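Forwarding the complex inputs:
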Amino acid sequence: MKELLSGNEAVARGAFEADVRMAVAYPGTPSTEILETLAARYRSVYSQWSPNEKVAYEVGIGSSLGGARTLVTMKHVGVNVAADPFMTHSYTGVNAGFVLVSADDPEMHSSQNEQDNRFYARFAKVPMLEPSDSQESKDMLLVALEISEEFDTPVLLRMTTRISHSKGIVELSEPVKVEGEKFVKEPAKYVMVPGNARKRHIVVTERLEKFKEYTEKTPLNIIENNDSKIGIITGGISYQYAKEVMPDADYLKLGFSYPLPMKKIADFVNNHDRVIVVEELEPFYEDQIKVAGLKVEGKNFFGVRGELSPGRVAEGFKKAGVLKDINIAEIPATKDMFPRPPVLCPGCPHRGVFMGLKKLKVAVTGDIGCYTLGALPPLNALDSCICMGASIGNAIGMEKVEGYEKGIVAVIGDSTFIHSGITGLVEAVYNKSNVTIIILDNSATAMTGGQQHPATGFTLMGEKTNVVDIPALCKAIGVKNYRDVDPYDYDATLTAIKEETANPGPSVIRTNRPCVLMPKRIMDEPYVVDTDLCNGCSACFRISCPAIAASEETNKHGKPKAVIDTTQCTGCSLCAQICPVDAIVLESKLVAKEV
Amino acid sequence: MQDSKYNILIIGVGGQGVLLASEIISEVAILAGLDVKKSEVHGMSQRGGIVSSHVKIAKKVYSPTIEYGQADVIVAFEQAEGLRSLDWMKKDGVAIVSKTVLIPAIVTSTKAFNYPDDPIAQMKQVGDNVVSVEADKIAGELGNARLVNTILLGVLSTYAPYDIDLWLQAIKARVKERFVDINLKAFEHGRQINKAEMEA
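Prediction (whole assembly, two chains):
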């Protein structure tokens, strides 16, 4: 049977077919849909969200030790969080098969950097597989689990946004049954104290030597011979782009890409006049091949930044002089056209907080989530964004050195707070910081699509569970200045920020409105603009609400009055609260007036 | 149609139904016995950003993305997005564009950007086959604003080289059961729009 699946859905299908019994992750674009698909469609695979990637990885180690085939998924920067257990897991090896999916994000469609996680395979001395489409995403997960069990190692399955989110036709297979062996105590293998770890490092390096043989023979590294003098070494999505523009060249396609098949590569290089390496981001293959003394070219034609595309690959081939007729239009110059950046939704509970922060001109250290959008014009109310949890530490450091006069505020979402903000809050109390921390609690991991987390009351598979009590947690940590605030009440929000930034010692303000989209789209009575009263001052335009637009009616200076799209307005009332002439009223009120 | 290659770019704004439209087109390709890949980037885009979906159909598809100048058809759910996406259209390609206008806050609230004047007229200066559709109006008359995508698919089906039966099957397969009838009706509306009416 065939089905159109995204790379992520294909990995989920693979987990189902391979009898994976534990799938664990923290949501992160572009990896999120793997576990969502499992929870929605393949419920025989137990799946769960963990509070962060490190915990997810550690849970995965445990389940593998307990004899269950295990899948752990995360976005590229999530692997940084999980790097600690990952690096040592290479030493202990596994019991049942263990695969880590790293979904990288070249071009940073939804990320803060575009690090190339293929280096992690080399760093941890574990094998890596790189699928180039949905079918391979499924097939390679199955192979990766087998390799993991045969060679006693975690395996890295490295995807990218285009693989994860593109759909292709996948041939489905029947699920198999795999009997794992339960945990057997073996401290020399699993207790990584120095004496044991030194011995295990020998095992790791010997294992890598075995993989150097394996990689030469695996059908995942395949030569496509078209009797060309030009050879192309490539893998992942880059293979598809290169095939699209130079279908007649010879190819060495790398599916098992760490360790590289150096003998095969040497033969390939020696059998061709020129060999060009096509890979996205860093010269991961190219540098290793050059170190082996082989003559290849690559990055000088393609660059190390951003996503490749058939057009970019064609241009690179043209630069290299191996492609003359390009059937692809030049990359057009940037059009003089407005951008359409993502914005906070109509009725988003974060909006009122950013309106207040902007007004007070405080320094705002930001974090990872929807609220990062508070940095964009016209709100312009967020001053830093580094990684999950960074807002609190950033604020503490800046405050300690008296680095900003007008007050320092950290903003962090509920899911991000649980992911890695709690330790930051402990730091703020412990080291007597005077920062104000706003927990933007909308009861969802909103940016990735509204996933559950430990403070929402539900698990990934939909079971009811305990809710982390954030006020009690703050109290236990030692926060003296704590308050909840309704972010739809602009004056109250403004007052809370003003007072808490003036208060000595660390303060926590928690906003208490749920995400307008999750779990149910909130739609109360909409507001409308009374155009008789609107004077075109544009104050409501500056709160960046997608439901508010410029009307064709203008004031006496020719400036547009406002109009509200009632199908989008959720009735949050923030615009009405800041309108200086009270021209924004509930729809029913205006109707009553007109009658 | 050479080598059965057919590239469709669908573009709109988060929440307009772009992804369902591309799902249905992909289903049509599968039913026609062809290879298909489709690509879109989601994540941030659901917050009012641009959503574009590339659908590539052929006997064998490699890259899931369409290159500039390689789309046989562009289906735009919003006028300015139609104009923005013209770089993808083949010289003799078709652009189907909904008359919908969505102006983002960054335009209304800052002086840095303007919404282009009459994007459809600008598109017509560049392309010979630009078809504008009052999709919002028709959807409103049918009683559901979410039908815009099936109306546009109806127009697309009169250009794309696939049997009408495949389209009907695909809609039935991909649309929630209780919405199938109204979507088939919207699709038929799209098919019946002849060019003269569209210009009106």
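The longest strand of chain A covers residues 98-104.
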